[in-house]
Amino acid sequence: EALQLCRPAVELRGMERSLLYTELLARLHFFTTSHPALVGQLCQQAQSWFRLCAHPVLVPLGGFLQPPGGPLRAPLSGCHKGITAMAWGVEEKLLVIGTQDGIIAVWDMEEQHVIHMLTGHTGEVRCVKVFAKGTLAISASKDYTLRLWNLLTGQEKFAIWDGGSKNPTEPQIWSLHVDEAYKVVYSASASKINAWNLETAELVFHILGD
């Protein structure tokens, strides 16, 4: 099962070799003592490659991906179509999940059930950030909007048209950073950065790259 989990990395053409060896070591190191002839040799080959690599690669000395059959607490399924973003609210123990169809699910991780299904986005959710001690979240979507959510009530506080190029060939990078001290969220997509006031939804400033 651990080898099956490595399969996408092995089959992906053009992948950085360091990433391939990192994933092999991360997934298989747990089994080196129980399968020294096969797994032990594979891990030794990966470690030898790291020692000879011309560029530094930071890799833990032990496996760091949970092997199949380990202490899994619970699977979360049944309400998501293509998970594209996740954020964790530690104070309220809420897991916020964005999906390809624009829906955002809010999970109560103590009770392990969905408490809210947040609808409003009409495109794939690309980024989610939780803040305000786990009570608020802001999401960015391919529909070029940012939406602020109250995670306790499940209500949308406001939506912002963040703009963006609809040219499918232009590379798009969605990223959010929340500055709670100044009550500002910074959004980055394609070649622009916007700063929005989290209380008034007004634009603070706009930076456009070349």
Automatic annotation (TrEMBL):
Alphabetical UniProt keywords: Repeat, WD repeat
InterPro entries, A to Z: NWD1 (IPR043365), WD40/YVTN_repeat-like_dom_sf (IPR015943), WD40_repeat_CS (IPR019775), WD40_repeat_dom_sf (IPR036322), WD40_rpt (IPR001680)
Keyword match Repeat: yes
Source taxon at top rank: Eukaryota
Keyword Repeat: yes
WD repeat boundaries on the chain: 76-117, 118-159
SUPFAM superfamilies assigned: WD40 repeat-like
Protein name: NACHT and WD repeat domain-containing protein 1
Classification lineage: Eukaryota, Metazoa, Chordata, Craniata, Vertebrata
